[in-house]
Prior knowledge:
This protein is of the alpha/beta class. The chain folds into two domains: 1-102, Rossmann fold; 109-224, Rossmann fold. The chain contains seven helices and ten strands. It has an eight-stranded mixed β-sheet, covered by helices on one side. α1 (15-24) runs parallel beside α6 (164-187). The model is unreliable at 211-224 (pLDDT under 50). The protein binds 5-O-phosphono-beta-D-ribofuranosylamine. 5-O-phosphono-beta-D-ribofuranosylamine binds at residues 10, 12-17, 45, 88-89, 109-111, 136, 172, 175.
Amino acid sequence: MNRARVAVLISGRGSNMVALLEAAARPGYPAEIVLVLSNRAAAAGLRHAAALGVPGAVVESRGRDRAGFEAELSALLALHRVEIVALAGFMRVLTEGFVRAWEGRMVNIHPSLLPSFPGLDTHARALAGGVRLHGCTVHLVSPGVDEGPILAQAAVPVLAADTEATLGARVLAEEHRLYPAALAWLAAGRVRMEAGRAVVDAADAAGALANPLPEIARLSTQPS
Length: 224
Ligand code: GRF
């Protein structure tokens, strides 16, 4: 099987990157992670990548102009013959030129049900907004921040007692499940565009919408 060559771009913890690396280690997964790239030398994710035997590289973005930073990024991606870029907690906004160059081949995971709550502090904003459903989205990257055709979403309930931390943990567990699935669809060539929307041709595409009701929510909705 010809596996798509993927670079994962991180800035910090790297738990989604680990989920992608673990998925890619399974037989039959249609992508291989050939490079982990961080724009922060201190990113904890780099250590996890090294422990899992995947080469990591740092292209420091602080104090750099965008053109120089992205030129270095592009050179590394070309050197490793990268075909798909997966952003996983990558906190640097990329220029329109870079995004266009990777159009249809760059994905991102965002911790909200887009188009609700683009940007930062999504869990706090979901709590403040009183929404009953929250979740995460994997999408193709377009020039606007947290914009682009949606590949997959997973929803979780927001419980009355939730804090930013408990809600964030519930969403993160879904991120780790959703991202490997969505990347697999893209890597296997199962994503096509139709009228500006991404359509997934996959037997398991039903997983593109998931609403796992946790035990605690099920119990509290049962009639007594
Ligand atoms: C995740 O919540 C992801 O959705 C967002 O940034 C966070 C990164 O976490 N884009 P990690 O570095 O993958 O643990």
